[in-house]
Design brief:
By secondary structure, this protein is α+β, with helices and mostly antiparallel strands. It contains 3 helices and 5 strands.
């Protein structure tokens, strides 16, 4: 089974580590390192934004049975390159920050933010007059 290791965009020091998630068959051909994904996290399975840092194939049935699955890919284009993913570890160790803090430095805040306000205009005038 294909699995992805992810880092949460918003994490605290106690939870600042990679988490493994299963990749559903529907996303197998589209998943790439550096992409933003939504993952269920914690007991309540609240969806969190995370970045894929590694993709592996596992065969251990015990590990597979414990996995949660990636909900969806936020954007098909990766937001981080492989060099930037390596830079996250350097930033964490050198500046004593979390992975989420390092990701925030490398990726603009509006990338992956689907809750931003959108304006739409509606014309109330009759086009025929």
């Amino acid at each position: 089974m294909l699995t992805a290791k992810v880092l949460l965009r918003e994490s605290v020091k106690q939870l600042d580590k990679p988490f493994s998630y299963g990749v559903p068959d529907a996303l197998r051909s589209r998943i790439k390192c550096g992409q933003y994904v939504n993952v269920p996290f914690g007991r309540g399975n609240h969806f969190k934004l995370a970045v894929v840092i590694d993709i592996t194939d596992i065969t251990d049935e015990k590990e597979i049975s414990k996995l949660k699955f990636i909900q969806n890919i936020v954007d098909d284009d990766p937001v981080l390159s492989s060099e930037q993913i390596k830079l996250i570890d350097f930033l964490k160790s050198h500046y004593l920050c979390t992975s989420g803090d390092a990701i925030s430095l490398l990726v603009p805040s509006l990338v992956g933010n689907r809750n931003c306000r959108q304006l739409r205009y509606l014309s109330l005038a009759d086009k025929n007059k």
